[in-house]
Amino acid sequence: MKKFVYYLLGLLLAILLAAYLLDYTFTAFYTNSKPRNKIALAYTGTAQEYDVIFLGSSRANNHFVPQLFIDRGLTAYNFGMSGSRLEESALLLQLLLAKGAKIKSLIVEVDLNINSNGYSEGTRANFYPYLNQSDLISSYYKNIADFDKLYYLPFYRYLKYDAKIGMRELFFTVAKRPSKNLQHYGFYPLKNTGKDMKYDLSKHYPKKNRAYETIKKICSENHIRLIAVTTPMCENVKNIAYFEEVVQLYPEVHNFEDVVTDEDCFSSCGHMNEKGAKVFTQFLLDKFFK
Amino acid sequence: MFFNSLSFAIFLPIVFFLYWFVFNSSKKAQNTLLIIASYYFYSCWDWRFLFLLVFSTGLDYFTALKIENSRSKAERKTWFWISVGVNLGFLGVFKYYDFFAVSFSKLIEGFGMQANPFLLNLVLPVGISFYTFHGLSYIIDIYKERIRAERNFIDYALFVSYFPLLVAGPIERATHLLPQVKVKRSFDYQQAKEGIHQILWGLVKKIVIADSCAQYANAVFDNYESMNSLSLVLGAVYFAFQIYGDFSGYSDIALGTSKLFGINLLKNFDYPYFSRDIAEFWRRWHISLSSWFRDYLYIPLGGSQGGTWMKIRNTFIIFLVSGFWHGANWTFLAWGFLNALYFLPLLLSNKNRTHTGNIEGVSFIQGMKLIPQIGLTFALTCLAWIFFRARTITDAFGYIKRMFSNWQFKPQYFNIERYNFELVLMLVLFVGFEWFNRYKIEPISGKYSYPKICLAIIVLLLFGVYSEYKSFIYFQF
């Protein structure tokens, strides 16, 4: 039995050693390789000066076209992330500033994402490779349920979020496979035109959002011009009054829900296609950056 | 509590420690601990069904004694049928009642009549098909006077409820397991080490092979109408490896866990995808169930004795019942039916026992001859798996029809953001690894076991699927 106990201890040691080595290797590759997502870009990239950046969910990622700003001689980047919530946007903004980025204006999409104070598990995962290296990230997430496991257990974060930061993603990172996330200055154009589009907002209620408050505070402290906007949806929306409720809750938000209405400008009810995105971005450009 | 869960990783060492260090004074103490652990393990699924398990155990224990002590044949028969009736009654109510009620109402509606069937909508108690078959084999063996009834309730209860086999087998026989639980077990280092190796290999099969394949197979089967022929073929292959990795992985963990307690369970899989014909496949796949049906259904029905029609009838009965055992759905019946069709030509031409035993060291020419045999058997198996996996019979036929009519073989990008061919290399490596270890229970033991353990750990960490937790498929049966 004694021999078997030693055998088990050896096995346990082998598991811990393998986990530690893999954790070290993964983190090293994610930190030192060419970035494949916007969080990696913010963390590993060099400090940049931006005239304007964009933040928000897919409704920012698919709706703001930095190229139109660049054509006017402004530096711009779309840091909107599909599936993300404002919680991740707030951290991304802090990460950019901590890395020395200079930002003059921030356009943030504030609409469906203030329906709750939620977070995106998938987007969060992209911060975790840097959890042990960045005090900013670790302190931001120190109160989440499994922080101790993510922080102290070697390789746990890469196991738990294998679909996002596991072996497959590492392989693409090492192989320097280009990511669509970072093309077109972060803008992801949708190509198709939707049919029979509709959306139900009857169960959506805008609520005070902690992450948005954080973004406002950061902008104020760093003298960043904050432009909060709602972005267009298709016409067949149940409870379109939701957008007015957003403005009632946060009067500084510009309600641009109805700026684009043509059906052929939408890929789905909640997302404009490239044509709609260009129309909308041009509108923003003309309104705020004359 | 799943075998691949954190709670089991805590539960198992605790029971192991108590078993060998605290309750190791006698067989009675060891068995009592295992019974408590097994009932706790089962109650973690749903404590309410523990009563059903205890009742079923008590019933079989009691009726077995009654059968053995009966003074007349009629009394013997009565007790036997009471046990069989109640056991199958539970199975029927929980597993099959709603299926029959719905099927009957559809039949009535087919004749233009209105039917509103009364449905029970019961949750299926986990492992009921397995422990019912344990009990049935025991009762039949007593009735046929093959074994003596067990007097010690604890020993009998452990035979039925032993936690490594409780929820998904292997379906044990009293002749194999009871003699082991009737003696005090002493610790055997070699056996325990092999147990660990088997658990490790089972985890690789489940977490790396089965769960990876599941992502791709689900993407194909759930959207088969938009898939091309290549994706549909690969989808069936992925599901074949998913179910193999899942169930044989589970069985390996069960067998390995049991070895830690000094008890050997029946082998359930023997590299089935290296079978040279369907008859051999069924001697290598879910062996404990196949042999159960052979011994308690096929042979009593006359087996392969008698005339041609008798052989055909018995073959269809055994495969249809086997299909139906898996679940109350026409898809499982079709799967059983198709396998009967595959098997029948071999039986009728007396070639069903052509390939027995392992494929020994083969020359290049012999190997070339084997490839089409193994390939054809695997292809037929995959075709049958489509029925097993599809939600409905209509979906299964739709899937097959599209597979043979689309004729597009381009790489396709799935909604899970992966290409259809991405897993092929992993499966080729897995098949190669199994091929070179096909004489062994698991590939880790033997020469170079330490490097192989390290490799298994690294493969588990690197290629395992942890973000999408998947239960074992056979737990639903």
TrEMBL record, chain A:
Listed name of the protein: GDSL-like lipase/acylhydrolase family protein
Origin species: Flavobacterium endophyticum
From TrEMBL, chain B:
GO molecular function: acyltransferase activity
Superkingdom of origin: Bacteria
A Pfam family this chain is assigned to: MBOAT
Subcellular location: Cell membrane
GO terms (BP aspect): alginic acid biosynthetic process
Main location per the UniProt record: membrane
Membrane topology: Multi-pass membrane protein
Keywords: Acyltransferase, Cell membrane, Membrane, Transferase, Transmembrane, Transmembrane helix
GO cellular component, as recorded: plasma membrane
Residues that span the membrane, as ranges: 6-22, 34-59, 79-97, 118-140, 316-338, 370-388, 419-436, 448-466
Family to which this protein belongs: Belongs to the membrane-bound acyltransferase family.
Protein known as: D-alanyl-lipoteichoic acid acyltransferase DltB (MBOAT superfamily)
